[in-house]
From TrEMBL:
The chain crosses the membrane at residues 12-31, 62-80, 92-110, 141-162. This is Transposase. It comes from the Bacteria. It comes from Salibacter halophilus. Keywords: Membrane, Transmembrane, Transmembrane helix.
């Protein structure tokens, strides 16, 4: 009994670490969505100056590191939770949902923002680019919301596990 409880506690610790890392990532997503995205999507190509020059913003490396680190932590948590069927299955479901949003990111969001970043800066506003940027921005609201909901699923699973273990 104690051995199983210790394994559950260790599994919950890794799920907590992975979920906390996900919340940190959610915070960065909210910040970028609230502050940066409205600025650069306001009036392209004129508003794309954020990405230009020697001090231009490029969040690519940041997001690669953040997502990769988080996903490694989720996989570690999954390994530690593998023996617990209900938790494992729910984690797999949430991980599949997460990966679905990641695939969408890599197929649409990343290439589109790279396209914007590579555009020549001009002191005009192109209505077709404004529409394209608005579509990207609006779909990003959905994407960030989905990431947050998936993480709430991980948090709820952790809460359920901790509650169940405290009653054991």
């Amino acid at each position: 009994m104690i051995d199983t409880l210790q394994k559950q506690n260790r599994a919950n610790l890794w799920l907590f670490i992975a979920t906390a890392a996900y919340f940190i990532m959610n915070g960065a997503q909210f910040w970028e969505t609230a502050i940066m995205i409205p600025a650069w999507t306001a009036a392209p190509p004129e508003s794309l100056f954020f990405f230009k020059g020697p001090y231009g913003l490029d969040f690519k490396n940041f997001w690669i590191i953040v997502h990769s680190s988080h996903e490694v932590l989720i996989l570690i948590a999954l390994v530690f939770n593998w023996k617990f069927k209900k938790t494992r299955n729910l984690m797999l479901l949430l991980l599949v949902a997460h990966m679905g949003v990641r695939v969408w990111t890599l197929q649409y969001f990343a290439p589109t923002i790279i396209e914007f970043q590579n555009m020549e800066l001009q002191s005009v506003v192109d209505p077709s680019l404004v529409d394209k940027a608005a579509e990207w921005r609006n779909l990003n609201y959905l994407r960030v919301g989905l990431f947050f909901l998936i993480n709430l699923g991980f948090a709820g699973l952790l809460w359920s596990n901790v509650k169940r273990n405290s009653n054991a």
